[in-house]
Amino acid sequence: MAEANLLILVVSLLLYVVLGGADFGGGILELLTKGKASGVVSRAIAPVWEANHVWLILVVVILFVGFPSVYSTVLTTLHIPVLLVLIGIIFRGSAFTFRHYDIDEVRPKAIYSAIFQYSSLFTTFFLGVTLGGIILGEISTNYQLGFYQIYIHPWLNWFSFAMGIFMVLLFAFLAAIFSIGELKDDKQVAYFSRISKRLIIALVLVGSLVFLSAQISGHSLFSDFLHSPASNVSIVLATLALPLLWVLLNKNKGNLLRLVAGFQTTMIVSGWFAIQSPILVKIKDDVDITVQNSSAPYQTQFYLFIVLVVGVLIILPSMVYLYKTFHFEKNGTEPY
Amino acid sequence: MDEFMAARMQMGVSLGFHIVFACIGMVMPWFMFVAEWKWQRTNNPVYLELAKAWSKGVAIFFAVGAVSGTVLSFELGMLWPTFMKHAGPIFGMPFSWEGTAFFVEAIALGLFLYGWKRLNKKVHLYIGMIVGISGVLSGIFVVSANAWMNAPSGFDWINGQAENIDPVAAMFNKAWFSQAHHMTIAAFSATGFAVAGVHAFLYLRNKLEIHYKAITIALAFASVAAVLQPISGDLAAKNVAKLQPAKLAAFESHFETQEKAPLVIGGIPDVENKDIKYAIKIPGMLSFLAHGDFNAEVKGLEEFPKEEWPPVPITHYSFQLMVALGSFLMLLAVIFWAGTFKWKNWLTKKWWLKLLIIATPLGFVAIEAGWIVTEVGRQPWIIYGIMKTKDSLTPMPGIQYTFYTISAVYLLLTFVVTWLLSRQIKVLHKNYL
Q1: Which of A86, A226, B208, B261 could form a disulfide with B286 if both were Cys (CB 3.0 to 4.6 A apart)?
Q2: Neighboring chain A residues of B117 at a CB cutoff of 8 Å
Q3: A68-77 and B45-79 helices cross at what angle (nearest 10)?
Q4: What angle do CA A174, A177, A180 make, to 5 degrees?
Q5: Which of A320, A319, A321, A326 lies closest to A55, judged by CA?
Q6: Range(s) of the domain holding residue A59
Q7: Domain range spanning residue B347?
Q8: Domain count of chain B?
């Protein structure tokens, strides 16, 4: 039962990365394009905005119900980067909505935009740093050690920072790809295709930097990767998708692009998960937190599973309906 | 301020902030729904205008409620990791349902806000109803999780570990029902009076039909809620008397166990001398309200070791404030019904509109006070009778700084939201002039 709930957790995390990520990336993209992407981003994400972020809440709930020691340990030791993520989430979410709903006046909108853009970048970066901290294995539960060792060192390192940059590029890339399908003007399509290509190159570079920095930080990510057939397959597939994306970008196939980019992100996340599994959080000076030793009792997992299945049966069709109503429109009418 | 106090204050500020947005987010969709329904039935464009104006407010409140709620789901673990480690698997069930309900609300709200042109009229209306239903459900689930902290059930506590966990029994704990109806009714009452108050203010300046209709819809909900609330409150208090006698004693600054216990109104509690000064006392009334019998014995705080007393003055003042405001709102509800069915000219009179303006924030003040009553009244326990709040505190030092940071962020957000709404309202007026 624990495994089934973990699977739902991973899928939720994935959906958060792909859907929420495209939306975080929207802010980053606006920043990269100096506001040129503004209209596109707002139009593309406004209706699905709230729903995309609930995936994170689902991840958190599955964690504290099903795997409580993961939740408690991570939020204790990585308190600081998580707090930064939360502050970013507050600013980003509010600024986006305020920008959308404030009456038309130039000045406050420019301020909201700036807050939305910078906090998108900030939040994404620290989300990556937090993930890096969880993966790296410098977390210690020996709370007698000094403040720096317990609360700073696990995330203040090259690997976590490389993860932060990787996340920023990944989310911007997803946003760029998702936006192309929304564009009507050929010039803009060409512009976004160019950005997407640059982001792909940057992603490959920083992706190798992640492995390199893991080595520097004393983590065996690379050899773990070599020893996990499943993650080899995932990463090979993710890499193979790159030339395909390039071709599709040249041919301007909006929906197919989204699909391939989504697939690629899925492969990256599942590749990471394959390396990590069954360890959920690596602990430096104690037993690692695994699926088995952190799982809540059977009774809890069982009822959690039932709620999640019922939830998914309600949510997925509604989500599809939501997306169908506002996306994938071929005709040129304004959606709302 | 020490770490422990800072952590409690941070939790208090975060919850106190979130609760306002959460209540509006779960109640306003119902007003929108009624306005749209009226529009479809009467074809009066004023109703459509109203539904659209309100929906902008809902979008803003919902977004801020969603982010502050997300923050809370992390803060529980960042501040109280020991509590969450033990409690998560037990009281997680209502949280998982809440996640589902909230998800549905987020999807439905997206469809509602942006689907005016895209969706069929009837479908759009029904989706508005789904927003309202899922909002109320998610509120009830969250309150059920909180009720479990007051009336823990569904597990055996053996050597500091929870065994034989039964998540269903935990969800339907002995406090869930009384807390759920009390909170839901409070949300309708507070939001209704707040909306009515804002429109009363605007109507006084400019006698437009839209404001009058807005007041009527908001008060139709709020007045029913405000009349039901004392009954709901009575049931809730009886439940507290049974489950958490120390908390009830703190409400009333009731130090000595006695029969024919008096109801204490107002007053200044003197914890040192176990006394209360300057209070009005109605003999036997507390016995009657708590146990349904004027002669029943009501346990006083003296029955409990002093280190297990909740902070008496805060709990006492908050309780008194909540009851006083609730009674005032009930009075307004009665006037509203009298005006609706008998003295129709009352409802456009200046004194009535002014009363409504005064009432604008009062429901929310009562909600905050009630929330303090539940949470502070449970202290020193985080899980009543099982785990103390101080034993579940995070080992991370420097919580003072996170408290200051979070408070500053929420203070800023409060200013911005207020400013934003006032601008929205101004524009609403301009469009009509």
Answers
A1: B261
A2: 336
A3: 80
A4: 145
A5: A319
A6: 2-300
A7: 3-241+312-430
A8: 1
Residues of chain A with Cβ-Cβ distance to B73 below 8 Å are 57, 60-61
Chain A residues closer than 8 Å to B118 by CB:
325-326, 335-336
The structure tokens listed for B107 are: 């999807």
Q: Each residue of B355-370: pLDDT tens digit?
A: 999 999 999 999 999 9
ipTM of the complex in this document: 0.91
- pLDDT band for position A333 (cuts 50, 70, 90): very low
CB A19 within 8 A of CB A113: no
DSSP A273: H
CB contact under 8 A, B77 and A314: no
Q: Which of A36-50, B173-187, B248-262 has the lowest mean pLDDT?
A: A36-50
Decide if B256 is inside a domain: no
How far apart CA B369 and CA B401 sit, in angstroms, is 26
In this complex, do A61 and B99 lie within 8 Å of one another by their Cβ atoms?
yes
A176 occurs within a structural domain: yes
Say whether residue B137 is in contact with chain A using an 8 A CB cutoff. Answer: no
For residues B370 and B372, what is the distance between their CA atoms, to the nearest angstrom?
A: 5
Please tell me the number of Cα atoms within 13 Å of A226 on its side-chain side. 4
Query: Would you tell me which residues 370-429 of chain B have a C-beta closer than 8 angstroms to some C-beta of chain A?
Result: 394-398, 402, 405-406, 409, 413, 416-417, 420, 423-424, 427
Is residue B36 included in any domain, yes or no? Answer: yes
CB of B235 within 8 Å of a chain A CB? The answer is no
Contact (Cβ atoms closer than 8 angstroms) between residue B110 and residue A322: yes
A96: chain B residues, CB-CB within 8 Å = 63
A209-265 pLDDT, tens digit each: 988 998 887 777 778 878 888 888 888 888 888 888 888 887 767 778 888 888 888
- DSSP string computed for B7-41: HHHHHHHHHHHHHHHHHHHHHHHHHHHHHHHHHHH
Query: Does residue A333 form part of some domain?
Result: no
Q: Is residue B272 part of a domain?
A: no
DSSP letter, residue B162: E
Query: What amino acid is encoded at A231 in this protein?
Result: S
Of B265, B269, B308, B315, which is closest to residue B286 (Cα–Cα)? B265
- C-alpha distances (whole Å) from B292 to each of B231, B257, B285, B298 are 13, 17, 9, 11
CB A78 within 8 A of CB A139: yes
B162 pairs with which residues across the strands? B157
Q: Do residues A50 and A92 touch, judged by C-beta distance below 8 A?
A: no
Burial A117-144, CB ≥16 within 10 A → b, else e: bbbbbbbbbbbbbbbbbbbbbbbbbeee
Residue of B nearest to A112 (CA): B416
The shortest C-alpha distance from A64 to chain B (Å) reads 5
What distance in Å separates the CA atoms of residue B213 and residue B31, rounded to the nearest whole number?
11
Per-state percent for chain A, helix, strand, coil, to nearest 5? 80, 0, 20
Instruction: Check residue A149 and report its DSSP letter.
Output: I
8 Å CB contact of B118 and A336: yes
Task: Report the residue from B84, B107, B405 with minimal CB separation from A322.
Answer: B107
Residue A316 lies in a domain: no
Buried b / exposed e along A31-70 (16+ C-beta atoms within 10 A): bbbeeebbebbbbbbbbbbbbbbbbbbbbbbbbbbbbbbb
Partners of residue A92 in chain B, C-beta under 8 Å: 67
Give the tokens for residue B95.
């949280």
Whether residue A218 is contained in a domain is answered as yes
For residue B45, give the nearest of B36, B54, B58 by alpha carbon. Answer: B36
Q: Rounded distance, CA B371 to CA B103, Å?
A: 25
Cβ A5 vs Cβ A304: under 8 Å:
yes
- Would residue B123 count as lying in a domain? yes
> What is the pLDDT confidence band of residue A336, given thresholds at 50, 70 and 90?
very low
Q: Phi then psi for B380, rounded to 5 degrees?
A: -85, 15
Q: Which chain B residue's Cα is nearest to A309?
A: B100
